[in-house]
Specification:
By secondary structure, the protein is α/β, with parallel strands linked by helices. It contains 22 helices and 30 strands.
Length: 709
Amino acid sequence: MAGARPSGFDLERLLRPRSVAIVGASASAGALGASVLENLLRGGFSGDIHLINSKRSEIAGRACLASVEDLPDGVDAVVLAIPKAGVLDTLATLSRKDVGGAVIFSAGFAEGGEAGRTEQGEITKLALAGRMAVMGPNCLGFVNNIDGVALTFVQTPAAELGGGRHAALISQSGAMAAVVATNLAGKDVGVTLSVSTGNEASTGVEDYVAYVLNDDRADVIGMIVEHFRDPPRFLALAEVARAAGKTIVLLHPGRSAAARESAATHTGAMAGDYAVMRTLVERAGVVFAETVEELSDLIEIVARAKQPKSPGVALLTESGAFKALTLDLAEQVGLALPALSDADSPALRAALPVFVPVSNPVDLTAQALVDPELYGRAIAALLEDDRIGAIVLGIIQTDDATCALKLPAIIDALKRNEITKPIIYAGLDDGATVPPQYLRAMRELGASCIPTAERAVRALARLGARSNVTPTAKKKAGKRVALDLPPGAGVVPEYQSKAILSAVGVPSPEGALATTVDEAVAAAERLGFPVVLKAQSPLLAHKTEAGGVVLNVESRAGVEAAWIKMHASVARYAPGLKLDGVLVERMSGKGVEMILGAKRDALWGPVLLVGFGGVQAEVIKDFRVMAPDLSAPEIETEILRLRGAPLLTGFRGAAPAAIGALAETAAKLGQLMLHEPRIAEIDLNPVIVRSDGITALDALMSLDARAPG
C-alpha cells in the first residue's frame, strides 16, 4: 500500500507499523490486550512489540514495561486496551514521544453525553499536538491482511490473500465490519484492510478511503457509515475512485430517520438529510446497499468481475414460474432485462433446443438434466451479446445427485469461456446442500455465488443504476445569470421571488403588488377577472394556512371584500404581522400540479426536487431528489420515474403535459443553485403543467446572509 497523509497524519505508520506497543497488555485469556498480542503473533508480526503492564514484569515470556513513560520514542502504533479513565493521560504522554498512531478501544466519549464530547475533544487536540493518527475511540481497531497486522481485540485468523481482486472495508461500526469481513471470508473474497473508525476523534472514514485508493490490490471498498464528517471530501474521493476503476459500496443506516423540518418550504421538509446524501453520493458513483447481506453480495460481485459495461442482465433458469416472478421483481427494482428473441439472438437460438423459445429470462426447462452441455452453450451465447452486461444462473439444486449432474457442466463452461462480464450462480432452493467444492471452483473461475436469485437480481439492479450515471467531471457548467438578490438572510416573499426567478426564465402569472385596496382593484381591472389575491410577507411562508389566499375573485366588489377578509384572517393567524402588500394575479388555467424545488444542505450542498405538488405534496410524497448538475433530458427521465407519471403522459386521453418545459425549468434551478451560494432554498409549489407549457403559481426563496465557506 502506498501511504497517504490525509489531514496531516501519517496513516502509513499506524496501518503498517514496524513497532507496536500494547498499553494494558494482559495474560488473561479474552482480555483486550491479550487478544491483540495473540493476533500479532498469529499473523507473524516481525516488528518490535512493547507490552505495558504496571503489575507484571513479563507476559508469555515477553518483558513488560511499567508505564508508557518507559516506551522508546518513535513507536509506530500504540493500542490503548485500557479503561476510559486512563486514556487522556496516556495520550498526553504519547503525544510527546513521536508516536505514529494510536488505537483506542474505550467507549463513553462523544456517544456518552456532553462530558464525553468534551473529553473526545481533548483526544483531538492531543492527536494534533503529537501528529498522531488516532483511530477511535470506541472502535475495534483494524486488520491489515497484506502485512499481517491485526490491531484489534476480535480474534482474527491469519489470512492468505492470494492473487486476483480484493476488497477493503471501512466502517464506523466495528461490530458490523467484523460481520461483513466474516461474510466475505465465507465467499472467498480477500480483504486487504478492514478498519473500524469508531467515534473518529482525529481520523475518519474519508482519511481511510484516501489511503485505500492508493492500494492497487483493493478493487472495491465496502463502507458502513452513519455520518460523514467531511461530505465534500468524500464526494471528491468517490469521483477519484470511479475514475480509477474502483467501486465504493456503501451501507448507510438512517433512511427512516425523520427528515429535518423546514419552516419555509415543502422542499426543505421533503428532501431530508438521507435523501440529499444518497442523491449526491450516488451521483459521485457510489453503489448503495440496503442491507448487510446486500453489501456483502455487491462486494463479492465487484470483487469477482469489474463493473458491468451494460446494465442489461440475462437470467437463465429452469422454471417458467420463476421466470414470471423474476420479471415482476425486475420491474420492481428497476433491473434492465433486455428483450431477446429468435430474430435478434441467433447465437442463443442455435444454443437452445427447438422447443425452448428465446426470451429473457430464458427458461431452459428440465432439458439440461439430459443435456448438461446446454448450460455451456447458453452461457457462451450470452457472453457474446453486447446487450447483456451480466448473467444470472438461477439453478434448481435439490440434492447432491442433482448438483453432480448440473454444476460440473457449468464449471466446465466457465473454464472454456473467457469471463468478460459478471456471472452469478444463484440457487433457487437455498435449503439445498451444495457441495462446497463446486462453489469454490466457480468462484476461482470468476463467478459469484449468491444464496438466492432474488438477492442477485437486487444487487445487479444497484450496479446497473451506477452505470447509468454520467460522471460529474464530464458535465458542462451552464451559463451564469446575474441576479438581483436582496441583502441579508431569510425568506424572500413570493412577489420578490417571482421577480428574481423570472431572470432565469421561470414563468409565473402576470400580476402586481398592491399596498392599498384601491391599488388591488386597479390591478385586477387591468389584468382582467377572475384574479387571485395573496398576502405577502417574508414571515408568512404558508399563506393558505393563514387565510392569506383568495381565489376566483370576479369583480371590483369581490376584490374589496377579499381584501378585508384576508387582512382579518392574517391578523388572527399572526397578530401584529405587517404585510408588504397583496399580490394580485390573473387566475391560471388548469393542469397537473407539480412541485419544483431546490435545497442547499449545510454539509452536502445543493439538490433538486421534482414531484407532484399542491397542498398534499408532503402527504403523497411522490417526488425525486436529484443532483443540481443534471441536464434537462436527464431530469425528464427522472420525472417519468414518478409513480404518477402517467398523469403527465396522456392519461385517459388527456393531452400530454409539457414535461420538457418542466425539466428545462428544473435544470435552470439547478444551475442557479450551483452559481448562487447565497440561495438556501427555492420552492415552486404548485407549478401548473399544461400541454403548452408551465406556470409557477407560487414561489418562495430562502437566502443565507453569507455564501457557504
